[in-house]
Amino acid sequence: MKKGLFLLFFFASLFIKAETITSPNGKLILDFKLNETGEPIYSLTLDKMQVIKTSKMGIEIKDNDSFLSGFKVASYDKNNVNENWEPVWGELKTIKNNYNELIVNLIQPDLRDRKFTIVFRLFDDGLGFRYIFPEQQDFKNFIIKSERSEFALTGDHKAFWIPGDYDTNEYSYSHTKLSEVDATFGKGFNEIGSKTIIGKNFVQSPLMMKTADNLYINIFEAALVNYPAMQLKVNQQNFILTSELVPDANGNMAYLQAPCRTPWRTIIISDKAEDILASKMILNLNEPSKIKDPSFIQPMKYVGIWWEMHIGTASWNYADMNVPELKSIDWSKVKPNGRHGATTERTKRYIDFAAAHNIQGVLVEGWNIGWEDWGSYYREEVFDFVTPYPDFNIKEVTDYAKSKGIKMIMHHETSASVSNYEIKMDAAYRLMKEYGYGAVKTGYVGYIIPRGEHHDSQWMINHYIRAAEKTAENNFMICAHEPVRPTGLHRTYPNWMACEAARGNEFNAWSKGNQPEHETILPFTRLMGGPMDYTPGIFQIKLDKYGKKEQVHTTLTKQLALYITMYSPLQMAADLPENYEAHLDAFKFIEDVPVDWDDSKIINAEPGDYITIARKEKGKDNWYLGSITDETARNFKVDLNFLDKDKSYIATIYEDAKDGDWFKNPMAYNIYEKTVKHGDILELNLVPGGGTAVSIKVK
Ligand code: NOJ
Ligand code: CA
After folding, report:
1. Of ligand 1's atoms, which has the minimum distance to the CA of residue 309?
2. Atom 11 in ligand 1: which residue has the minimum CA distance?
3. Each residue of 213-226: pLDDT tens digit?
4. What is the pTM of this model?
């Protein structure tokens, strides 16, 4: 070979040489390089098995050159982090954060050395990467047109997916091969208040997949701040997934100013489904808590005036009429409809029930004027968030709650008129302070105002964070319904206890409901980013008691097991006190179950099939176990090897009757006690659509 040609090849090979990092345990390997046209590409292998094939990365900029190609590597930096941290609340007392980091500093020589950085963090359980726009001359304010992060999969994996949609995540899950995804089926979900389906081959993240080789892969994002949510476009021929951002009213994705950075893109991988549920990677990729004194943040169980509206025995609204102008009404003259749920008297009934049964909070929906005409199409001023209906005496109620040691939970349904909420937030929070409310549940039912924004677009992402920050300033906890799905930001804002952001138990009250497998999929998808306010604990499974054909698609004891399998620091006991009083023996589990834990063991799990988890109570030696199944009966033998060797325990087992069945016999159960110790085997017999809950307390 001629010397000149040799040198050319030599330099070319240098140019495209991959930079490699491995995970701390050496099993995951990330390769990064630039290809011949200077496009950044990466790939990922686990134990020599390819997980992500060569995939492109980068960002397209509006009205400017893009960060997609023409790059040269300016430098590589590498770091290793191995630390432990303690969350304010959660599934574990201590979380290990251990990764190897590769920072790739790129320049575009043809664009006067314009700078762009990609950061990779490789953990034992997966990869996170993000883009950084460094501070530099001539590139400051800019608009993102599209993000081109690719995840090139190795085959036509089985996927657990919901339709890609800018406004809702309240679908039930499908599981099909990627080539069989057809998101247009989402059009049939008429029960969802606002839908904007992207197209046939778009799905939402977190996307849970299983390969033919039994590898579990979860693709998602972490630390979604000042940027729209990432959904995924599925190429149904070559199985490359590409990031798809949620646009604003002008079709733009994000308005940014350098220096700044994008959220992390995450790939969690394991050959064990249990490891996916145990992963703390999303939390580790978020910033530490910004709340200096978190003492006001107290995980809790709550009851509330809520289910009666969903099953239709009470109403949110006080009167049956339209209210064209909030201010025009003299409410003292309005004739009540006789079904209004949020009365002073009924609230006191809930407070009494909570105080008697180790429940710390009471939520009241429908307390404030405006419900006569909520959820209307693009209506601007629906609620003022400060004026109670005449039959709700806010002072009497909050004084009574205080006297019983109960925290009141405020309700702010915005009816998706978010500009209205932004204007009225300060006054709304002042009212909460005045009456000693400890938490607020927000809601975003309908199409967003400012019109053209979406639930998952950049402006709304910033709104949810503003609400978390403002409530933190006021020492309130917050739980949002119909927001974007969480991305681990509860590490940074631990007062942001939970979100709905998926199809909750309420759908069982007024739609075709949630199929028995639903709760076995949610932890692998929606819950990857944070707790869900699923509102479990419905005991009256068949709603024919209320003249309705609907029913909850589980057994009664599966509702108990959900307190363990669906972690949240804010857990509702969602049924009516009278239904609990008819089953106080079963309600004992809800009374006992904690909402904050020192340890959690994922005992077995398979998305769409079953989940069994055991958790250790915070600061105590007691354990609680929950096991759920889909429509298939299953038997499990659980090794109690997690118990302390030196202690003896009383296990109380809440299980379905032998002939139990979510459809045919959902409310029959047995409760029995047994002494157990380390190493004993606990047999669980799950009936179709059933579940078992166990408390294991030190003797
Ligand atoms: C939908 C929420 O998910 C539900 O919990 C609430 O009761 C209604 N909106 C009314 O705000
Ligand atoms: Ca909802």
Report:
1. 7
2. 413
3. 999 999 999 999 99
4. 0.97
